[in-house]
Amino acid sequence: MSQEQYKVPTASPSQQVSSSQAKEPDRSQNATGTQLESDHRCGDCAAIVHLTPRGPIRCTKCGCRIVHKMRTKRMMQFEAR
Known about the structure:
Its main location: nucleus. It is found in: Nucleus. Keywords: Metal-binding, Nucleus, Zinc. This protein is mostly beta strands and about 80 residues long. The protein has one helix and three strands. The radius of gyration is 23 Å and the shape is elongated.
């Protein structure tokens, strides 16, 4: 199909989506609606920083950009041979 023959598809008023439904879903929440945050420790001042998936990677206290992910408190056991 040539460029001159192409027609832009238009949606009828019944197919149009309202602006509140057209918004992209918030990626910082999971399916249950709870906030997804992970705890990290600042590499400079050792403060605990809560980071969101799309948020900036920066310490809120000193502004350092080096953060280390904290270990989980869940017990993990591996079988070694």
